[in-house]
Amino acid sequence: MSAAAAARRILTRLHEVMASRLHAQGKLDHVVDIIAESLNSEVCSIYLLREGMLELFATQGLNAEAVHVTRMAIGEGLVGTIADNVETLNLAEAKAHPDFQYRPETGEEKFHSFAGVPIVYRERAVGVLCVQHVDPRRYEDVEIEALQTTAMVLSELISNNELIDEEEARGLAPADTGPATISGLPLVKGLASGVAVYHQPRITIDQVMAEDIEVERQRVYRAFDKMRDQIDNLSDRAEFGVGGEHEEVLATYKMFAYDEGWSRRINEAIDAGLTAEAAIERVQQRTRMRMREIDDPLLQDRMHDLEDLANRLLRIVSGQLGTAATQGLRGDAILIAKNLGPAELLEYDRRRLKGVILEEGSLTAHVIIVARAMGVPVLGRVRGLRGIVQEGDFVLLDADNGTATARPAQPVIDAFETRFARSRKRQAFYAELRDIEPFTRCGTRIEVMMNAGLRDDISTLPLVGADGIGLFRTEFQFLVSATLPQRERQFRLYRDVLDAAGDKPVIFRTVDIGGDKALPYLRESEFENDENPAMGWRALRLALERGGLLKAQARALLEAAAGRSLYVMFPMVSEPWEFDAAKAVFDDQLAHLRKQKKILPEAIRYGAMLEVPALAEVLDQFLPRVSFLSVGTNDLTQFLFAADRANPKLAERYDWLSPAILRFLKRVALATAGSGVDLGICGEMGGRRLEALALLGLGFRRLSITPVSVGPIKEIVRQIDLRELEKAMQGWLSAPPENMRAAIAEWANERGIETD
């Protein structure tokens, strides 16, 4: 029996119960009987949220005396775990689960299998529907889907019969008008303030079961047509210009809108007897549950795009079209949302949208790419956001430090405004430095370049006054694309970047993907199960193995740089032969273009990232091969300390200013001196003022950093005397102080150099 047929059979009987004159308890008693019989299950139970506890309201198969007696907290036992995580459990052996708890009054000791689904009301679990069986077995997918569909009907039943408290269902504590500070993950940095505006008004599904299936199907068809028209018109309304990675984001978004599999699943839910609204919500719930099972963050981001479209479709079919965007922002606003799709963000008035706070979100999400292009600060991964920040609250958003304050006290507002004003003043000062060359007090010219990865990043080059792009991460184009970018598309991006940079150099790093930057469309068994992905099948290793990948990129770069200088940098070179093999791919493509009498780059300079410590041991062999060398401090640090930088327990454990790192970097600087090879740093280390001092004292003369760091580093360069700094650094390396960071900071403070 199909899932639709199983659900239809159950819904038909449930419809009779719902229409009956039985009181609410009687209806629940009938529901558990129907489910137990339909799924051939020996136990069916319903738990509902009451006074903060999950209480057994009805059961078929457990001891009747346990009804309204057995209670458990959210997160307690299997039932509490389902409610806490709003997720489905399907266990062949319930006792083997770490959260299993035995309640003797229920008489459940003889049952082995267990399956449960949350009963969701207004995006919160307000109950649990579960089944049990004597024999150990996992329930079939059709049975689980039937349970999930039934849970939707129960949600309507309990709300209509007031079986749960409305305030409790919303997860609200007694009104708290005091200040509240929340923490999250900075997704797009910046400061902002404004009134909290909920992105999406709550949509209430008043009717779950359909009276006429064909009518519901036609409603969904019309909604799909309208939604697709909206998506087709979105790119024309983007406020940040033509071109950029956001165009690829919208192309992927459009692909989801036209996905036939998605519309088919909604139709199957209608076939089961659900209304159009309930069918969309049913499929959306399945999407959310599948998202929790996906470990790949990129695939999770794509699923967020699909959920965004489902929200849009639900609003259209229900006639509840008003979002905060369509209603219009009346003043400076901080947008509050569970998650947000790129299309939805584009609908807002950029003049009044000052910031965004999300319950979910990730650095690689499509909406974050668009937000960065719009210059909107975003804070993500804020747990319990909607229970803390209410519509209309005044909010201070500090996406630099990963915090936001709702309903702040006046002293906090004053301090924030002072900091905001100081930040604007500092930015104005840094803007004045953009045309000033960064010479030290002793007359040494330091190259201050910036890192980039998106077409839109290049627009900041003249604004910050960087000397060029010291690291252009070409893999970003691959990460935001739904399919492998073809050579022509790569060519257009590289050409546009070179055009925008003008006479300033751009160092293109070839793709660093695989392992820790998995692509959903490029999965290979060699790297998808890497236990240590940062040290696995990635970067140049993967590119050399996939010859076509590097070949297409080489051709695109060479054609884009026709008549200009081209700088190419290979990532994660461990031994000289890897560099030789990669360069040979470019040489072959260059020869091919020469035969075709194409315009060639006027000069090509090849370099490498030094991030694998092994390469430092063969620099005498390697340096004659390259024109430049860039030390990638992020990966180098984790390799030197055997410490995964993605592990939060290790993130702050090892200091960039430790003697081990500084001595290693000094050896590299000494080995490179006099070789004619340009030596630089690319990574976060060079963008921090105190760390930049140390690097300059070690002999580094080129720093490639984030755009926002260019001004502060230019300022500090102009305050130092390299001869004095190098002498101090030599002493610290010879006899390391107990706290290297404190020693360098004290040296700087004595000379009036700000390091914060």
UniProtKB/TrEMBL annotation:
Example GO BP: phosphoenolpyruvate-dependent sugar phosphotransferase system
PROSITE patterns on file: PEP_ENZYMES_2
Reactions catalysed, as given in the entry: L-histidyl-[protein] + phosphoenolpyruvate = N(pros)-phospho-L-histidyl-[protein] + pyruvate
Cofactor(s) listed = Mg(2+)
Query: Which InterPro entries does the entry mention?
Result: GAF, GAF-like_dom_sf, PEP-util_enz_mobile_dom, PEP-utilizing_PTS_enzyme, PEP_util_C, PEP_util_CS, Phosphohistidine_dom_sf, PTS_EI-like
Q: What is its main location?
A: cytoplasm
GO molecular function annotations of the record: kinase activity; metal ion binding; phosphoenolpyruvate-protein phosphotransferase activity
* Localization terms from the record: Cytoplasm
The UniProt entry's sequence similarity note says: Belongs to the PEP-utilizing enzyme family.
Domain spans labelled GAF: 23-168
The enzyme's main class, written as a single word, is transferase
Q: What is its EC number?
A: 2.7.3.9
Which Pfam families does UniProt cross-reference here?
A: GAF, PEP-utilisers_N, PEP-utilizers, PEP-utilizers_C
Q: Can you say what this protein is called?
A: phosphoenolpyruvate--protein phosphotransferase
Q: What keyword terms does UniProt attach to this protein?
A: Cytoplasm, Kinase, Magnesium, Metal-binding, Phosphotransferase system, Pyruvate, Sugar transport, Transferase, Transport
Gene Ontology CC entries for this record? cytoplasm
The gene name on file is ptsP
Keyword hit for Signal: no
